[in-house]
């Protein structure tokens, strides 16, 4: 770690789940028409990163991998308080699954000199949660997933996290550098300040980095470097339910008494 | 073979898309244990993987990493594994991603499994995401169906787009083919004490001095297994942090408590009780959704329930479309009233005696 810690926070632009409509022709969800928003778990990651800066100083740099339109989420991150932001963009990234995505973000973390890379738990558009451990694996760094609390012991080159595990929690100390995935819903995000918001919308321009800029060859990323492929899609038939709305608990009890549950 | 390969360099996994897929065989299941306690999902995977291994004509191998885990390995054999690979060392207890990842990487390079299945717990997802990278494996997240196609390729199916669509993910050119699997989807394999299989201790390649993490504290209490419950009462965001009405109803119904993601994220209910896409799949006789709006991600985890009851004060809540019986009302009034009615009503209390003839029809 240098004199001041560099905290990189990953954010992603995703379709707004609340606005996704069903395509009447195909019956599939029409995600293309939904407005793009910041992946909600990334708001918790932003807060965790800014909290580390509050405690230990340093700088927070937001990073996203996506098309130029993804600059919107970087502006939002800067408005909330990030010192700077980087757009990792290249046609070579198209079709990346989680393997090259985590490779790309790992290379970006190195280029930006990250000591800590904070991510959200998962993205709402694919829900794998694979990218944070993937970044750590590519870099050979420690990883702290499902983090509920963070305690920087940067003088000892250590970050301590309380992790949510099945049925309880654990406290894990990791040597820097480290990748953190913040438990969704923890780290209540702070609001954007007015001046910062104006700056983000008017003056701010993100750093723009291509695959080459972060030291990656085109064939290391994108669809060719992605081990998985979608082999097919089937629409799931909805489960038929009675859909009876009853007037009160007595009627409900009568209905239930006739089911096999209580038969 | 080129001269360069003569020194054993051909044992390294190839990372240029030209993996010799025929060199990989067998189905591995990562048996997740903490201090000797095995997560139920691992036994569920053994049951499902038994079928895959039989379809492929290959071995089902239990991978057990931990400290003093011979009993776990033995139980894995009893529950369907042909063999067990055991990496037994204090460095592996409690779980940490970095030593587990390094051990797994070495094992995959040496043994070359075709398929590796891992439970979709926090630990399983932490592990899978880490180990898939050095192997350049294809990793599918939180599958709900598994199969093999005519070419022996793993077909890992997972709900996509919030559950309205089932996507099949394949990994044609890379090995191993890895998947995490959502807990509760498959029935756990029952132990058969007569089953025999080899338990092999493998070389431990990790030294404590090389680790970069230290577990300072581990507190685990409630590891409820809601996947086996016959009756479930589930709390959602409508509870506003007060679970007492839900707990009272669960108590009256002799049901297990579960929760939507919202209630878990708010910290009201432990994550081991979460139902849905990033939680567990449940299939009780009775599922009562209390104050749950009914997002597709939640519905998907409870759709196999026999009878679904919804209690919500919003008549337009989507949960009513996925329920057999719904009550539009304030859960803080409906739950206590229903709990009382259940206690009073012998038919609902499960008593078989003295049921009024009317109630039997």
Describe this protein's structure.
The complex is a heterodimer of chains A (about 260) and B (about 350). With about 260 residues, chain A is α/β, with parallel strands linked by helices. Chain A has one domain: 3-Layer(aba) Sandwich (Rossmann fold), CATH 3.40.50. Chain A is about 25% helix and about 30% strand. Chain A is built from six helices and 15 strands. A nine-stranded mixed beta sheet of chain A has the order 11-10-9-12-8-1-6-7-13, sandwiched between helices. Chain A has a two-stranded antiparallel ribbon with strand order 2-5. In chain A, strands 3-4 form a two-stranded antiparallel sheet. Chain A is globular and about 70 Å long. In chain B, strands 7-11-6-1-4-5-12 form a seven-stranded parallel beta sheet, sandwiched between helices. In chain B, strands 15-14-16-17-18 form a five-stranded parallel beta sheet. Chain B has a three-stranded antiparallel beta sheet with strand order 8-9-10. Chain B has about 350 residues and is an alpha/beta fold. In chain B, about 25% of the residues lie in helices and about 25% in strands. The interface between A and B is large, with 81 and 97 residues. Strand 15 of chain A pairs parallel with strand 18 of chain B.
């Amino acid at each position: 770690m240098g004199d001041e810690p560099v905290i990189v926070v990953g954010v992603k632009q995703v379709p707004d789940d609340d606005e996704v409509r069903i395509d009447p022709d195909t019956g599939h969800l029409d995600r293309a028409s939904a407005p793009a928003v910041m992946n909600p778990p990334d708001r918790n990651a932003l807060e965790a990163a800014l909290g580390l800066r509050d405690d230990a100083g340093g700088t927070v740099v937001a990073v996203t991998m996506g098309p130029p339109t993804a600059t919107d989420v970087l502006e939002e991150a800067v408005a909330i308080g990030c010192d700077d932001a980087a757009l990792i963009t290249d046609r070579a990234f198209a079709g990346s699954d989680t393997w090259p995505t985590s490779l790309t973000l790992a290379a970006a973390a190195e280029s930006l000199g990250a000591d800590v890379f904070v991510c959200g738990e998962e993205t709402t558009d694919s829900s794998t949660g694979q990218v944070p451990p993937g970044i750590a694996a590519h870099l050979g760094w420690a990883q702290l997933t499902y983090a509920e609390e963070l305690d920087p012991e940067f003088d000892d080159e250590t970050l301590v996290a309380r992790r949510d595990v099945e049925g309880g929690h654990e406290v894990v100390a990791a040597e820097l550098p480290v990748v953190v995935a913040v438990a969704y819903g923890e780290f209540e995000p702070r609001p954007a300040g007015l001046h910062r918001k104006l700056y983000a919308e008017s003056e701010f321009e993100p750093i723009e980095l291509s695959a080459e800029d972060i030291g990656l060859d085109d064939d290391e990323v994108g669809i060719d470097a992605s081990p998985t492929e979608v082999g097919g899609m089937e629409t799931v038939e909805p489960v038929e339910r009675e859909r009876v709305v009853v007037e009160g608990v007595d009627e409900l009890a009568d209905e239930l008494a006739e089911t096999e549950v209580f038969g | 073979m080129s001269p360069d390969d003569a020194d054993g360099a051909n044992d390294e996994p190839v990372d240029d898309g030209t993996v010799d897929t025929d060199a990989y065989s067998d189905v591995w299941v990562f048996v997740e244990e903490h201090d000797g306690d095995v997560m139920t999902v691992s036994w569920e995977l053994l049951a499902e993987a038994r079928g895959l291994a039989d379809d492929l004509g290959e071995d089902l191998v239990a991978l057990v990493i931990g400290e003093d885990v011979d009993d776990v390995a033995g139980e894995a054999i009893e529950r369907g594994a042909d063999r067990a690979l055991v990496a037994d060392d204090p460095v592996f207890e409690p779980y940490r991603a970095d030593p587990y990842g390094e051990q797994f990487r070495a094992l995959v390079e040496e043994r070359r499994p075709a398929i590796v299945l891992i439970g979709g717990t926090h630990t399983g997802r932490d592990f899978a995401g880490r180990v898939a990278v050095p192997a350049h494996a294809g990793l599918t997240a939180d599958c709900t169906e598994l199969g093999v196609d005519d070419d022996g390729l793993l077909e890992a199916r997972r709900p996509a787009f919030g559950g309205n669509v089932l996507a099949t993910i394949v990994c044609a050119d890379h090995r191993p083919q890895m998947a995490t699997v959502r807990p509760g989807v498959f029935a756990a394999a029952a132990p058969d004490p007569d089953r025999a299989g080899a338990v092999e201790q493998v070389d431990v390649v990790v030294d404590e001095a090389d680790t970069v993490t230290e577990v300072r504290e581990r507190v685990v209490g409630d590891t409820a297994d809601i996947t086996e419950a016959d009756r479930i009462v589930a709390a959602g965001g409508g509870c506003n942090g007060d679970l007492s009405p839900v707990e009272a109803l669960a108590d009256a119904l002799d049901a297990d408590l579960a929760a939507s993601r919202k209630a878990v994220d708010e910290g009201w209910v432990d994550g081991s009780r979460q139902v849905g896409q990033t939680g567990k799949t449940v299939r009780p006789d009775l599922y009562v959704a209390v104050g749950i709006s009914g997002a597709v991600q939640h519905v998907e985890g409870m759709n196999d329930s026999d009878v679904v009851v919804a209690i919500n004060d919003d008549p337009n809540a989507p949960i009513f479309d996925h329920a057999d019986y719904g009550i539009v009302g304030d859960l803080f009034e409906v739950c206590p009233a229903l709990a009382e009615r259940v206690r009073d009503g012998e038919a609902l209390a499960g008593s078989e005696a003295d049921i009024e003839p009317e109630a039997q029809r």
